[in-house]
Amino acid sequence: MKTLLKLSTLAALLAAGAAHAQSTAPIKVGLMLPYTGTYAALGNAIENGFKLYVQEQGGKLGGREIQYVKVDDESDPSKATDNVNKLIKRDNVDVLVGTVHSGVALGMAKAARENNTLLIIPNAGAGDITGPMCAPNIVRSSFSNWQPAYAMGVVAGQRGVKRAMTITHNYAAGTETTKGFTEGLEKSGGKVIKELYLPFPNVEFQALLTEIAAQKPDAVYAFFAGGSAVKFVKDYAAAGLNKTIPLYGPGFLTDGTLEAQGAAAQGLLTALHYADNLDTPRNNAFRKNYALAYKANADVYAVQGYDAAQLLGVGLAAAKGDIAKRDVVANAMRGATVDSPRGKFTLSKAGNPVQDIYLREAKGVNNEFKSIAVKALADPARGCKL
Length: 386
Ligand code: BEZ
Hints:
Structural class: alpha/beta
Largest sheet: 9 strands, mixed
Number of helices: 12
CATH class of the largest domain: Alpha Beta
CATH topology of the largest domain: Rossmann fold
Bound molecules: benzoic acid
Number of domains: 2
CATH architecture of the largest domain: 3-Layer(aba) Sandwich
């Protein structure tokens, strides 16, 4: 009896020790981002932003150290399932943070739903993720493809555009941004007369630019980002189209790209949930700290990475660092008001930011605030049953 008691006491002590070890181990964050290809700069800025916030908190969120496991998703949807499963099943990450490309993010969201893994999306705007696929364990720190597109459509209409053409890559983000812009433009009676697409990540724009020149629309709406945006804006100007046909876009067209685009981008008007020169203490401190840490200017992707870490911080604080309390973490993230460099935002029921969309103008290396295009814009979250 005495031996039995001793054994059970030992077992209890070991169990308590194991539980203690678990609650103090670092939180494993799986960063699944593009580190190569046309969206590589976006992936790096998101990682930088995320790490900056963690560093500002002394390297801990909710009292727990943060450990990173990284996968380069190459913006390749065909590799998404394998890549995300490596993080979930091989590396046993506690939370997934990713990604940029909507097609890859759809694969991540499917795996996150199946495995009930927390997923924070720091960019990809695929409407389905906060629409029919919405789930309590999935939130965004970024936008839906519809949001900046719709706002740009509204502004284009207000500026008298009646006949517009659109041009973008042919994948979820491209088709959704086109729909959003069309919806906004149609509010004032404008129309999209032709949608032009090319396969992702093809950047041979010449034939399509020739078609734009032939159709002579009142304006062109273009969604490209990263390396593709640099080439498109330069090609548009080189073809002389910028002299006669105004070019509009969601802010990705000129965010993080102005230095490389040079004169070709000057004066471009875009709509986005961030503007570089927002003169608030929060944005000024963020930009200063980012520049000090990385010797580079912050952009919208850095903001979204920073805010992904803020969301995780809110969730972990509510669960006192115990990420196994998945519901507590997820509910706290959804209920958060995030004090972002873009301005404060909340999350919708579907897990998408409700946020102001700004009209910006490219000046020098900054996308400067001009006005609020649409205030507190919520994605319609069509099909979300939460
Ligand atoms: C997307 O695929 O959702 C996306 C990629 C780059 C910038 C914005 C959106």
